[in-house]
Amino acid sequence: MFKTMIQAMKMKDVRKKVLITLALIFVYRLGAFIPIPGIDPMMFGATIDPDSGVGAAGFLGLLNSLAGGALANGAILALGVGPYITSSIVMQLLTVAIPSLKRLSEQGDEGRRKMAVITRYVALVMALAQAIAIVASLGSAGHIESNLFGGNLHVAVVGMVITIVLVAGSMFTVWIGDKITELGVGNGMSMLIFVGIISTGIGGVYQNISAMANGLASFNTAGVELIVFALLLILVFFLVVFVDLAERRIPVTYAKQIKGNKMYGGQSANIPIKINAVGVIPIIFAFALLNFPQLIMSMVAPQSGAYMWYAQNLGAGSWANIVLTALLILGFSYFYASLSFNPEDVARQIQQNGGFILGFRPGMPTQLYLKRVHRRITLFGALFLMFMALIPSLIFMAIGIGEGLTNAFTSIGILITVSVALEFDKQLQAQMLMKQYKGFLK
């Protein structure tokens, strides 16, 4: 990847796109430190901090890591790309359930543009809902300041200002992501998530180094912890890269066909089926589904018996939470895998193009074979996601690695970081290849 980056910087057009991407990322990171007027950033950070015991720390910690720590900082870009990610997942589910949306998604570029507009409107609604929930939580905890802009305003007025700022910051983040996709190297939303996770990780490393420099921790504790964490992280990264690039290739042979005076076909091709084709969506859904009730109860009735029972028996770290998370990841993996790969459509296309899989007749036998292979691959991918969602965090906690590092690189963060880094490398290679073709044509 570093070699690709060096080669890309030698080309003027590609270098311009990279610099535009870096400039937009700088603006995004700057917004992660500008505080929201009307709140106490220290108290706001304590509400988000997993060690504070307030709220659904697992889900809020996930949102905070995706936003690069902006949520804990009480910054204007605190919501980050979270509402847009939620709206994208919701639109994928609605596309399956609503026929009109499914037809719209199949109408080529025009349909995709309309779907993108609808997704942004849904993201606006999601941002408004999350902002209202955050303001309600802050108001119930008494963390909203009434002396906004030098005047003694009503708490409700200040809450409205905070809500508007949060929603505007979320939409501004979406705009930055779109500009990176349009003017930069591409995949703007993924790049912002990647930068947020890396920033959170750097913050965790800085805390350990700072503790050693100030004499608050010895090298035998903070230093060894940092080294062990780095070695385990490299091992996990290697595993994620290996599985992310792994795929099962099913060979397909096409029969020779004579059309007019020419002969077509007679070639062989492969149907690639990725081991982890669904990405991190099953993990996000599983974490959100289990932590969302706790998040709502923490905002509405943080001292109730129901909240205490849920936090103790189904909260993050409990065995019931671990088992349910694994089962939900398994179920969502099969659900999303069925959306990304349809054996019936693939078998029909193979038959229409005069192809066949050796040992299986075209039509139903081919469809059943593809379904069986895809089901087995999906099971392996689901088991890998279950492993990534649970085992690394449990290992980090078992060997005593602190919260500052384990919260920096969660299972979702590791998967997203590796996937975006590989996609960024592919984007740069594609940009350089396109530039070489243009130079050849000139």
Distance between the termini: 29 Å
Strand count, sense and barrel status of the largest sheet are: 3 strands, antiparallel
Low-confidence stretches: 50-57
Rounded mean pLDDT is: 77
> What fraction strand?
5-15%
Specify the number of helices. Answer: 18
Could you give a short description of this structure?
The protein is mostly helical and 442 residues long. It is 72% helix and 6% strand.
Question: What does this molecule look like?
Answer:
72% of the residues lie in helices and 6% in strands. The chain is mainly alpha-helical. The strands form three sheets. It has a three-stranded antiparallel sheet. A two-stranded antiparallel ribbon has the order 1-2. Strands 4-5 form a two-stranded antiparallel ribbon. Helix 6 (82-97) crosses helix 7 (99-105), helix 11 packs across helix 18 and helix 12 crosses helix 14 (319-340). Residues 50-57 have low confidence and may be disordered.
SSE arrangement:
Elements: H1 2-9, H2 12-31, H3 41-48, H4 57-66, H5 70-73, H6 82-97, H7 99-105, H8 108-141, E1 147-148, E2 151-152, H9 155-183, H10 188-213, H11 219-245, E3 247-254, E4 257-259, E5 262-264, E6 268-274, H12 281-300, H13 305-313, H14 319-340, H15 343-352, E7 355-356, H16 364-398, H17 403-406, H18 411-441
Antiparallel strand pairs: 1-2, 3-6, 3-7, 4-5
Helix pairs in contact: 1-18, 2-9, 2-10, 4-12, 6-7, 6-8, 7-8, 8-9, 8-12, 9-10, 10-11, 10-18, 11-18, 12-14, 14-16, 15-16
